[in-house]
């Protein structure tokens, strides 16, 4: 009320009331250019400052409360807005960012709430003597006769439970229970809704997992499996080892988004901001991370991803089975290498230039790749496919090119001009051609489910690694050169 | 989910600022209690759960929230021992500020009724089965037997230049045992004099641990004594067989900090610094359960079993 006899304050108040209550915004447009109170204040300060001005200034006209004018920045704020208008309650300004202070106040009120539930007893040694003198302790300290002979045998409930209850199945992921975040304050834990996609009955309802934020993704997966098994012990047989699963970005439907690779196993969960994730089986169990490229450079397939030990503050480490993961991994890779040259046939779709899809049998052995069309429907009558066989010596590369949630596309590229007795050079019109000055590559695109696609690519690349043909070598050389020149161009744009 | 009445309860705590309540048979966590700002040095369960930590004594109601029910303010140093009287009449605490306090639990708020100053940091406190005398061990190796009612006390010094880690009196009142930081275990015979004060008679001294001795405890039926320590073993001795070694329970490299027996003395819970509590069947030396869930070392364990009277 004290400000009501301040003309300047009243002016700004009226002005701001007009601006903030007029939803059409016209008042603001009109008044934006002339802020009467501000102009008066400015002219007053100019008049006061100009040395040659001896005219008597009518102070009452420019009277401004000292507190309002002293601090320049604050003055502007105070003059430009009214205290009576609360921006947080109505109008377009309803949204307000939470400040640190608000968060702090909330924390304090939470602590207060906790304290109100908790009684406090003061430990004060000076009043003990008094207690001792005033009160009669005959009921408090009663001497009991001790029977020195052994009492009749007692049984314990625990022993009875062990004898009578059926043996229980212990949770096989229980070593991960240390990452339970529910006992930590909210800034040290993360709560994430996780969809368990490998179990069809559970994939529609997420499990709420509260995890300690120091946990690595691998440890988090272990904790999810632990929690899942705790809630649904009947699925114990459905769940495999931790390394067979990956955490994928997901939307609210729970469908893992396979366009993105699985979260890096060695990263800390605190790094990610996701509220919803999906647990899914890795496409190829022994491949630790989809982030490893399969085709562009075959050697990367055989780099064993290092699994970091779960970090715990004490010196303890998790049981040895985790430590052995790396050896198992090496064994798995070794087995695929050994099995790679053995002939295997896959049913896949061949994608032609015109986006026709034809079901073919793709046979892969150490010697050659055979593409045999399966029985075709009448719609494709005019587009009859011939069998294509080409030697493994002529294959340059094989890689997954597109990853859609259920269908993966992969390409096999070979040189049809490569001399080989097995090659029939039966190139068909649907092959796309990549031209290099001195050699030509033909590429065939196939489509199939993710697991098969990854398996085929791995198999072909393993074979290519075992037998380094001239086509392959040339491809790799050129690939390197293209890469280098690309980098050079990037570095020197001129 | 709260334990129903009559179910055994296991509580474990240590350096991760939490107390976990377990269903001992299923090995699952029933509840996690907050013990903010401090580690837990000692635990005891009766109707309430008592936890002693750095400058804190807290009482928890197991059926209520995860926050403490009563917080004792103003203790200056570590609280190293907590325990309850048999009928839950009073609670005793011992701390490094060299004082043992007796808290009356029958009042609306616990009131400190008695206090005993040992002049040296208290490492362990044990209530005599007669419920009115308390045995106290201190960090300079001294032992006090204090009569709460009359304030009379006896002093002992079994060995100089060492610290006693733990003291216990057998439930039948026959023996008192103490273990020191050098791994030596001392046994005394107890008897009452004409004024009913407990007197001691040194009986035995033997090395029960190669390294640091941490805890000694008699089984509820007074037939076994367990001694644990820094060499990762819990050694069980037969009392009636002149304390001959009966069983040795061993884990790799970690320290065993605290133990608890089942009521029939057949099972032993051990808390160790690998953050795991284990349940051993003493006779077979089998680990029956492992309680995994703590992220740091465990230093305290408490177990409340239910007696089952023989049917006849």
Secondary structure elements and their pairing?
The complex is a heterodimer of chains A (494) and B (312).
Chain A: H1 7-21, H2 26-32, H3 36-49, H4 66-70, H5 72-80, H6 100-117, E1 119-122, H7 128-134, E2 155-156, H8 157-164, E3 189-196, E4 207-212, H9 217-231, E5 245-249, E6 276-281, H10 320-323, H11 325-339, E7 344-351, E8 357-364, E9 368-373, E10 388-391, E11 395-403, E12 408-414, E13 432-435, E14 440-448, H12 450-466, H13 470-491
Parallel strand pairs in A: 3-6
Antiparallel strand pairs in A: 3-4, 5-6, 7-8, 7-14, 8-9, 9-10, 11-12, 12-14, 13-14
Chain B: E1 9-14, E2 18-23, E3 28-34, E4 40-45, E5 49-53, E6 56-60, E7 70-73, E8 79-84, E9 90-95, E10 99-104, E11 111-117, E12 122-127, E13 133-138, E14 143-147, E15 153-156, E16 164-169, E17 175-180, E18 184-192, E19 198-207, E20 213-218, E21 224-229, E22 233-238, E23 244-250, E24 256-261, E25 267-272, E26 276-281, E27 286-292, E28 298-304, E29 307-308
Antiparallel strand pairs in B: 1-2, 1-28, 2-3, 4-5, 5-6, 6-7, 8-9, 9-10, 10-11, 12-13, 13-14, 14-15, 16-17, 17-18, 18-19, 20-21, 21-22, 22-23, 24-25, 25-26, 26-27
Domain CRIM (chain A): 156-282
Family (chain A): Belongs to the SIN1 family.
GO cellular component, one term (chain A): cytoplasm
């Amino acid at each position: 009320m004290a400000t009501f006899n301040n003309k300047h304050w009243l002016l700004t108040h009226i002005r701001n009331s007009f601006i903030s209550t007029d939803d059409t915004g016209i008042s603001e447009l009109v008044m934006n250019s002339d802020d009467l109170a501000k102009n008066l204040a400015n002219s007053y300060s100019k008049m006061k400052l100009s040395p040659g001005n001896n005219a008597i200034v009518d102070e009452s006209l420019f009277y401004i409360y000292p507190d309002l004018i002293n601090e320049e920045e604050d003055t502007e704020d105070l003059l430009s807005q009214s205290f009576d208008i609360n921006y947080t309650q109505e109008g377009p300004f309803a949204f307000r960012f939470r400040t640190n202070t608000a968060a702090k106040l909330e924390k304090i009120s939470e602590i207060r709430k906790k304290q109100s539930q908790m009684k406090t007893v003061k430990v004060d040694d000076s009043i003990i003597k008094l207690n001792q003198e005033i009160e009669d302790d005959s009921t408090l300290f009663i001497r009991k006769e001790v029977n020195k002979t052994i009492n009749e045998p007692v049984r314990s409930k625990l022993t009875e439970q062990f004898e009578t209850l059926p043996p229980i199945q212990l949770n096989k992921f229980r070593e991960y229970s240390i990452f339970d975040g529910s006992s930590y304050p909210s800034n040290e834990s993360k709560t994430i809704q996780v969809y368990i996609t490998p179990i069809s009955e559970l994939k529609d309802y997420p499990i709420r997992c509260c995890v300690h934020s120091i946990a690595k993704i691998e440890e988090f997966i272990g904790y999810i499996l632990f929690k899942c098994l705790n809630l649904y012990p009947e699925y114990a047989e459905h769940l495999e080892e931790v390394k067979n699963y990956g955490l994928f970005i997901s939307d609210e439907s729970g469908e893992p988004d396979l366009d993105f690779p699985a979260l890096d196993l060695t990263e800390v969960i605190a790094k990610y901001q996701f509220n919803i994730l999906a647990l899914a089986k890795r496409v190829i169990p022994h491949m630790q991370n989809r982030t490893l490229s399969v085709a562009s450079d075959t050697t990367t397939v055989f780099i064993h991803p290092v699994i970091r030990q779960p970090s715990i503050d004490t010196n303890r480490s998790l049981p040895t089975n985790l430590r052995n993961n790396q050896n198992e991994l090496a064994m798995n890779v070794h087995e695929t290498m050994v099995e790679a040259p053995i002939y295997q046939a896959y049913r896949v779709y061949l994608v032609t230039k015109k986006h026709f899809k034809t079901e073919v049998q793709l046979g892969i052995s150490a010697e050659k790749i055979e593409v045999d069309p399966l029985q075709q429907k009448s719609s494709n009558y005019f587009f009859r496919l011939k069998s294509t066989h080409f030697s493994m010596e002529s294959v340059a590369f094989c890689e997954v090119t597109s990853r859609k949630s259920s269908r993966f596309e992969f390409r096999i590229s070979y040189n049809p001009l490569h001399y080989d007795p097995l090659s029939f050079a039966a190139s068909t019109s649907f092959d796309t051609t990549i031209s290099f000055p001195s050699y030509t590559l033909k590429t065939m695109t196939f489509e199939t489910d993710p697991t098969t696609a990854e398996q085929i690519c791995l198999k072909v690349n393993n074979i290519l690694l075992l037998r380094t043909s001239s086509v392959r070598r040339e491809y790799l050389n050129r690939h390197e050169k293209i890469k280098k020149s690309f980098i050079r161009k990037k570095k020197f744009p001129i | 989910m709260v334990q129903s009445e009559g179910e055994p309860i296991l509580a474990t705590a240590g350096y991760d600022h939490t107390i976990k309540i377990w269903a001992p048979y299923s090995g699952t966590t029933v509840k996690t209690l907050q013990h903010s700002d401090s580690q837990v040095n000692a635990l005891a369960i009766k109707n309430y759960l008592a936890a002693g930590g750095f400058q804190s004594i807290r009482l928890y109601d197991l059926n209520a929230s995860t926050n403490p029910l009563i917080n004792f303010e103003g203790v200056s140093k570590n609280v190293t021992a907590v325990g309850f009287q048999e009928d839950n009449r009073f609670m005793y605490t011992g701390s490094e500020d060299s004082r043992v306090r007796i808290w009356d639990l029958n009042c609306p708020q616990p009131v400190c009724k008695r206090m005993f100053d040992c002049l040296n940091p208290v490492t362990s406190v044990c209530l005599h089965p007669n419920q009115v005398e308390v045995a106290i061990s201190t960090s300079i190796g001294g032992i006090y037997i204090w009569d709460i009612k009359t304030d009379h006390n006896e002093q002992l010094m079994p060995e100089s230049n060492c610290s006693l880690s733990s003291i216990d009196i057998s439930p039948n009142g026959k023996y008192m045992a103490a273990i020191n930081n050098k791994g030596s275990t001392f046994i005394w015979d107890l008897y009452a004099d004409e004024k009913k004060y407990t007197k001691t008679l040194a009986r035995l001294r033997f090395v029960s641990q190669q390294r640091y001795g941490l805890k000694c405890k008699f089984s509820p039926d007074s037939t076994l004594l367990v001694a644990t320590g820094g060499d990762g073993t819990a050694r069980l001795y037969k009392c009636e067989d002149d304390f001959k070694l009966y069983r040795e329970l061993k884990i790799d490299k970690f320290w065993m900090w605290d133990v608890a027996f089942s009521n029939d003395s057949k099972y032993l819970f051990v808390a160790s610094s690998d953050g795991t509590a284990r349940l051993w069947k003493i006779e077979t030396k089998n680990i029956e359960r492992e309680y995994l869930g703590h992220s740091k070392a465990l230093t305290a364990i408490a177990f409340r079993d239910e007696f089952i009277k023989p049917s006849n």
